[in-house]
Write a structure and sequence with these properties.
Protein name: HAT C-terminal dimerisation domain-containing protein
Number of domains: 3
Largest sheet: 2 strands, antiparallel
Order of helices and strands: HHHHHHHEEHHHHHHH
Number of helices: 14
Amino acid sequence: MVLATQESLKSIARDFKSVKAAADTFVQWANDDLERRVEETSLEVESALPQKRGRKKKNRAGEMAHDEPIMDPERVFEISVHNRILDTALEAIHRRFMTRGTLFADLAWLDPRNFERIRTTTLPNNALEVLSRCLIRFDTSATVDNLQSELKCLAGQWNRLKASHLEHYVTRTVEDGAEGQEDQESSVVNLACAFCKNCPLCCYQILHRLNVFSDAYHLLGLAYKFLLTLSLTQVACERTFSTLKFIKSRLRSNLSAGKLEAFMLMATEKDILMALDTDSVIDKVAEKSELMRKLLL
């Protein structure tokens, strides 16, 4: 998908004539629609870019050459707006996605839709190599051979594993505020989703509910956690920084790193915090010392 988007943008990166033709068609349609809807109206979408008066720069002493300013407004728009926007988009795509192409290719093997391909053909020798380098810092046994062995085993047993009766699972998503309320903040809600059994999240849920992480698929469980915790957008990060402003305020600027981290976790994972049983929390705290046991129990 990323490659297709990049190639599509490259094909129109310098094709300003097609963009201009599409814009002229839209302007003509808009003017005709305005004239049809409103009989007497002075509204009209301009079809030409405004002509700006060029400003001449004074030559410095001894300066012989100077660049002639571009007076054509369409040419100025093509260079300053059209080309700049597309070049920026292509550079951002290359920087964010193409440099991590090998890692994304490794993560694609974890998709259950590719398990049939794994069963019928052999994995490339360099498959899961970059993913192994990311996971080996958490588990030294996460070598390429071990990951490939577990993935081949899971692909072979997937049709049997997904036949288990698992109706739905709970996911967290962001729900926007009501329409017309610009100041309404987005909130994180829990949704019950039906099992499609054809995506990495379903695969993780099945492995987790069957408690097979500690046996045959321990490394794959770690790999799926790594995949599912990758942030696809910066929304969650920006929301966390917004929460940080409320916690570390002017009156609480001397919080230690440990307390700040604890408060941040409680604020960002508020739904999990509110779902905890109060009695179990008290029992955990009481186990810390004999004095706490006497005071709390």
